[in-house]
């Protein structure tokens, strides 16, 4: 199910913000949202290729985006050091 590009940006931004809060990283809300959008796109592509379907609709995209955002924020934290 495709939620559309605007909804994808909003959900990706939300997942990035949530991941930043969970991981307690202080990159700033703008960078967390950007990382969230990129993480959502990457996680969606990886999960689709692997055949993993978390849930359908916006909730599935939120979970996938959250996982992708956490991974990207972790990598950004390593690079930042």
From TrEMBL:
It is found in: Cell membrane. It is a multi-pass membrane protein. Keywords: Cell membrane, Membrane, Transmembrane, Transmembrane helix. Its main location: membrane. Pfam families: Transgly_assoc. The keyword Transmembrane applies. The chain crosses the membrane at residues 6-22, 29-47, 59-79. PANTHER family: UPF0410 PROTEIN YMGE (PTHR33884:SF3). Belongs to the UPF0410 family. This is GlsB/YeaQ/YmgE family stress response membrane protein. It comes from Mycoplana rhizolycopersici. The lineage of its organism: Bacteria, Pseudomonadati, Pseudomonadota, Alphaproteobacteria, Hyphomicrobiales.
């Amino acid at each position: 199910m495709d939620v559309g590009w605007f909804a994808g940006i909003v959900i990706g931004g939300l997942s990035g913000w949530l991941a930043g809060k969970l991981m307690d990283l202080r990159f700033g809300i703008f960078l967390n949202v950007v990382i969230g959008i990129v993480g959502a796109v990457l996680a969606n592509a990886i999960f689709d290729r692997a055949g993993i379907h978390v849930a359908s609709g916006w909730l599935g995209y939120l979970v996938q985006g959250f996982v992708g955002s956490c991974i990207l924020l972790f990598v950004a934290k390593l690079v930042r050091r």
